[in-house]
Task: structure prediction
Amino acid sequence: MAYDLEFERPLAELEKKITGLQRKGDRLKHDEHLQLQDAERELRRRTEEIYSRLSAWQTVLVARHKDRPYSADYIRLICDDFFELHGDRAFGDDHAIITGPAKFDGQTVMLVCHQKGRDTKEKQLRNLGMPNPEGYRKAARTMQQAEKFGYPVICLIDTPAAFPGLGAEERGQAQAIAANLYLMSRLRV
Result:
């Protein structure tokens, strides 16, 4: 793991020590094996200690960290059989919103997630995670499907805001957001 933030430096030093010992693999001596176990325990303890006492600004820095997981990462790690649905059936598809059914802990659920993108090309495709009206309409459509089929809805929200462009406003950005809020307040799943 990359420890880029100032308050994470003690963790980086411990991680370096652990990595050095792990590289020895089967050649570890008994005392080195004990050192490795102690260092791993200390890393867990200090990680918990540091992250349980973050200031408000440090929390913001962690939230904005370049390597933090995005919705697609969580979907890949905790869900099976994700099938992405596309389009709002009115204008087009918004890649800032990924949505579709998946298996979570053996149960079919409907996922509605923001996705920002990792590299420049993907960030551009996903509009930096800022949905247009068609993204909100796609989300509404899939939440209505979830209700029809009795699937719980799981939302992963990670967006700086709705897209503020003229085209988005012309296509009904405010109305699409309001309609989603209304729909979500009425969902029974």
Remarks:
- Strands lie at 97-104, 107-114, 153-156.
- The domain at 71-186 is CATH 3.90.226.10 (2-enoyl-CoA Hydratase; Chain A, domain 1).
- Residues 30-51 form the longest helix (22 residues).
